[in-house]
Specification:
The complex is a heterodimer of chains A (about 220) and B (about 130). Chain A has about 220 residues and is of the alpha/beta class. Chain A contains eight helices and seven strands. In chain A, strands 3-2-1-4-5-7-6 form a seven-stranded mixed sheet, sandwiched between helices. In chain A, helix 1 (about 20-30) runs parallel beside helix 3 (about 55-60). Chain B has about 130 residues and is α+β, with helices and mostly antiparallel strands. In chain B, strand 3 (about 100-110) and strand 4 form a beta hairpin. The radius of gyration of chain B is 16 Å and the shape is globular. The chains are: A alpha/beta (about 220), B alpha+beta (about 130). Chains A and B meet through strand 3 of A and helix 1 and strand 5 of B. Chain B: Pfam families: Trm112p (PF03966). Chain B: GO terms for molecular function: methyltransferase activity; protein heterodimerization activity.
């Protein structure tokens, strides 16, 4: 079993790693050799959306996933998450690896068709509304809310990412996305199977939530 | 922000996606403060793979924005990646210095299509848009 990165930050400002984060780590660990085979030694661009504490990106860097020829982008709207991700990478001796934290709203700032491995533990909690992006760094309650709430069915943000998946990923690219049962992932999978291979990598009951991680890749390369 | 990252960033404005001018962003050389960050070691194999992937005209463009016009007009190619010559290694070392070690710590860049300006502060690029442009 691979070690979990050591994380320490102010959890009033960024999402504290929890069951969902660990399920994503377990899914990536399970797929370690799958990813190594898929990308061999070619340069792989790994991009995590909403890294929060940075635990997932750091885990990828620590374990040289998919290979040692990888560069890592960590995109978050929350300036505290950018800071936490840098901090977690350093704390786990990953400062000799190519990591670029970028303040960005999802993938809007990335050139199309450049991401080989997309990682996303989204704000998936159903809520009536999603707050606007705060104007100041000090509005920590709102920053934290943005890490959690996902609007109707908790799918508003995830759906944006799924809608753009085709223009985000390289031809050989894969995406790992986490869902909770209230996101109705089975229905989403069904609606996307004509173009995408979608595999359930891990699922787990966590308290009153049932969480799952799906892997998306193109049907034809 | 490392130089190589400029090869992946475009304007965040959605309507600019239909334009060819949203990438690369135009970096303001007079306002960009550069530093050499040597924490990542030179690794020729990694660099050959990076080079495989980069959009060379965009490298030339950004290098020239930042005042470096000494790069070859065509992307360097290596005949045999398993037997790199001394000359190859010298080229790769220079590219390591440029792409991986050169970091923009403070600066600004603009979309050539819509003119929106983005900033880099404390080495972090901020590609968020103000609400009226989202």
């Amino acid at each position: 079993m691979l070690a979990t990165p050591y994380v320490k930050f102010d959890y009033e400002k960024v999402y504290e790693p929890a069951e969902d984060s660990f399920l994503l780590l377990d899914s990536l660990e399970k797929d370690q050799s799958y990813l190594a085979k898929r990308f061999h030694d070619q340069l792989a661009v790994v991009c995590e959306l909403g890294p929060g504490s940075g635990i997932v990106t750091t885990f990828m860097m620590q374990n040289k996933m998919p290979s040692q020829n990888a560069i890592y982008f960590a995109l978050d709207i929350n300036p505290w998450a950018i800071q936490a991700t840098e901090d977690t990478a350093k704390r786990n001796d990953c400062d000799r690896i190519y990591l670029e934290p970028i303040q960005s709203n999802l993938t809007s700032s990335l050139r199309h068709s450049e991401v080989d491995v997309l990682l996303f533990n989204p704000p998936y909690v159903p809520a009536e509304t999603i707050p606007d992006i705060p104007e100041t760094k000090d509005d920590i309650d709102t920053w934290l809310d943005l890490a959690l709430v996902g609007g109707e069915n908790g799918m508003k943000i995830t759906q944006l990412v799924l809608d753009n998946l085709n223009s985000t990923l390289t031809a050989n690219g894969v995406a790992y996305i986490l869902f909770c049962a209230r996101n109705k992932p089975e229905e989403i999978v069904k609606s996307m199977t004509s173009l995408w291979n979608i595999e359930l990598v891990e699922h787990r009951k966590a308290g009153w939530e049932v969480l799952s991680v799906y892997r998306f890749s193109r049907k034809t390369i | 922000m490392k130089f190589l990252t400029t090869n992946f960033l475009k304007c965040s404005v959605q309507s600019c996606d239909t334009s060819n001018d949203n990438f690369p962003l135009a970096y303001d050389g007079s306002k960009c403060q550069l530093e050499q960050d040597e924490s990542i070691e030179f690794n020729p194999e990694f660099l050959v793979n990076v080079l495989d992937r980069v959009e060379w005209p965009a490298v030339l463009q950004v290098a020239s924005d930042l005042g470096n016009t000494s790069l070859p007009p065509n992307k360097p190619v290596f005949e045999d990646n398993n037997a790199l010559t001394e000359d190859d290694m010298a080229i790769l070392r220079d590219l390591h210095t440029l792409l991986i070690q050169t970091s923009i710590v403070e600066g600004e860049m603009k979309c050539k299509n819509c003119g929106h300006t983005y900033y880099i502060k404390n080495s972090i690029p901020n590609l968020l848009l103000p609400p009226h442009l989202v």
